[in-house]
Amino acid sequence: MKVITNIIVGIPFLSEEKQIKNAVESIRWCFNNDVDEVDLFPMNIKPYTLLRELYEKKEYETISHWMLIEVLSKIPENYLKDIYIAWYGNRDLEYDNDLKAIFPTSCANCKYNLFKFYELYLKNKDSAYRKSLINDLISNKECNCYKEILK
Ligand SMILES: [Zn+2]
Asked: Which of 10, 66, 87, 144 has the least CB density, counted as fewest CB within 10 Å?
């Protein structure tokens, strides 16, 4: 038997800082309590949900991909091999009335690098390799998105 936990990044009613902190602390708790795998779920805003209503009332914003990267950068390297990333925007979710799920966002400049990162990250579970991908992505940024998130 194997225990897998799903961790959300982007909980409503929390500041970005607390959303990141909550995800990091939850991941640490999981691995300190013998969870085998953590699946990170960046918040998707789906039609016909309370979250969608909050979004339409401008009381909730889409999360940035860089928040997910910041969470990964704060996790001890040896945990990375057991952290999977789900629903980052790699597939379309369509509903009635042409409504779609809204995925995490980034600027157009960052999108290519971020999606390349996700692809490479998910292909290879080695912790050291994953850590180097994260470091490369953070140090190689071509615009200010990551800095903006840190602010
Ligand atoms: Zn950017």
From this structure: 144
Note down pLDDT in tens along the chain; length 151 residues: 999 999 999 999 999 999 999 999 999 999 999 999 999 999 999 999 999 999 999 999 999 999 999 999 999 999 999 999 998 887 777 888 888 899 999 998 899 999 999 999 999 999 999 999 999 999 976 788 888 888 8
Name the domain count of the chain. Answer: 1
pTM equals 0.93
Taking the centre of ligand 1 as the mean of its atom positions, its distance from the CA of residue 151, in whole angstroms, is 14
Distance 81 CA to ligand 1 centre (A): 27
Domain of residue 118 covers 4-150
Q: For the beta carbon of residue 74, count every other beta carbon within 10 angstroms.
A: 15
CA distances from 113 to 63, 65, 106 (A): 17, 11, 10
The number of angstroms, rounded, from the C-alpha of 48 to the middle of its chain's C-alpha atoms is: 22
CA angle, residues 151, 11, 46, in degrees to nearest 5: 115
Ligand 1 mean position, distance from CA 104 (Å) = 13
CA 107 / ligand 1 centre spacing (Å): 4
C-alpha 106 to ligand 1 mean position (Å):
6
Q: 103 alpha carbon to ligand 1 midpoint, in Å? A: 16
